[in-house]
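[audit] Reproducing an earlier prediction to check determinism. Same input, same settings, fresh worker. If the tokens differ from the archived copy the diff job will pick it up downstream; this log only records the rerun itself.
[audit] input (88 residues):
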Amino acid sequence: MGSIIKPTTEAELKKCSKFRINFFAKKYGRVISRIGVWKDDKCRLFESQSGVECFTFWDNDRQRYTTATQIKEIIGFLPDELKSEVMQ
């Protein structure tokens, strides 16, 4: 099993085989958790025009792209071949 990290940059997110993200979803009016991946160039970390941190990712639970705001936590799962980088 690979290592677990708390990615904070685009580069760290791209290294993860998958991640769990917890964020406040206005649609549901509560904090939700999703499993996702950095799939392609449609995925990105960015700041909205109003200054809100946003993260667009492939949502494995919904099988579509999702943009999260009000992010509470991201837990990344590294594949075994990257485990040595974390252990250093």
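[audit] rerun output stored. Observation attached for the diff report: The longest helix spans residues 10-15.
[audit] end
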